[in-house]
Amino acid sequence: TVVLLGAGGTKPISEFGGGNDEELSMSEDEEDYLTRGEIYNAFVSRYDNQTIYGTKTINSNVNAAGFAKTSKDDTSVLLAGGGDALISSFGGLFDTAGLSDFPELSAYIQERYPKPIGALSQPALIGKQTL
């Protein structure tokens, strides 16, 4: 019995048989090892320290003790859309929102970056509304 080859030739089927089956197969341990290796490269462990070199997208809320950006200190914050900004650039926003009147809401900011009372923005009377 012969096998027809792609270029038109033939070969006896016996030339394709035989050989060492152990050489051509994989043991259960090796297969399991490869599967675990592939899995370990595809997820972030909750228990081990790991470095992420690619991008990981998280599609739910993240609770963390903190995030740190290299080469930054406590005078800057990370922004949700990426990048960072100096905390001092947000100073006017807290006063405009009236948070300086509620120390429990802005205690951290006031404690770290206290402003003299004269530096706080003064209310502006517009008709019957005060801004």
Number of strands: 6
Strand content: 5-15%
State the share of residues found in helices, binned by percent: 25-40%
**Ends: how far apart?**
97 Å
- Low-confidence segments, ≥5 residues, pLDDT <50? none
Order of helices and strands: EEHHEEHHEE
Please report the number of helical segments.
4
Strand order of the largest sheet: 1-2
The coarse overall form would be: rod-shaped
Oligomer: single chain
Structural class by helix and strand composition: alpha+beta
Largest sheet: 2 strands, antiparallel
Radius of gyration: 33 Å
The average pLDDT is 67
Structure characterization notes:
The chain has 131 residues and is α+β, with helices and mostly antiparallel strands. It has a domain of 55 residues. Helix content is 27%, strand content 12%. The chain is built from four helices and six strands; from the N terminus they run ββααββααββ. The strands form three sheets. It has a two-stranded antiparallel sheet with strand order 1-2. Strands 3-4 form a two-stranded antiparallel sheet. β3 and β4 form a beta hairpin. The longest helix has 15 residues. 0% of the residues are buried. The mean pLDDT is 67.
